[in-house]
Amino acid sequence: MPKSVLRHVVLFAFKPGTTAEQIAAVEQAFAALPDQIPEIIAFEWGRDVSVEGKAQGFTHCFLVTFRDAPGRDAYLPHPAHQAFVQLVSQHREKGLVFDYWAPPSA
User: Within 10 A of 40 (CB to CB), how many other CB atoms are there?
Assistant: First the structure.
């Protein structure tokens, strides 16, 4: 049976006045990380489309998957990730990060 994987969930709300081009640059930069950081084994992202109105200003969700905690721990200080953090910090009003172990798929 496959092992659990570590999911790293990142939510962003952008500062008022952030342009569509600036948001697109953040999206593209985050989506480029899997090609630069081999510890990332899966990646997906999307914009909030909920009809419940409970997103609390968060508009973007990114899901990064790692085989194990050492993979996540290598990702966090990785130069490509740190460059991304510098980019997004210019435009992010608030962020939320939540890591969890996903059970093996059946």
Answer: 21
pLDDT in tens, 37-74: 999 999 999 999 999 999 999 999 999 999 999 999 99
Q: For strands 92-102 and 5-14, give the pairing.
A: antiparallel
Query: Shortest CA distance to 62 belongs to which of 88, 23, 27?
Result: 27
- The average pLDDT across 65-94 equals 98
Q: Crossing angle, helix 79-89 and helix 20-36, to 10 degrees?
A: 170
The string over 44-75, giving b where at least 16 C-beta atoms fall within 10 Å of a residue's C-beta and e elsewhere, is eeeebeeeeeeeeebebbbebbbeeeebbebb
Residue 83 burial (CB count, 10 A): 13
* CA separation, residue 99 to residues 40, 58, 102 (Å): 14, 17, 9
Angle made by CA atoms 84, 103, 49, in degrees to the nearest 5: 55
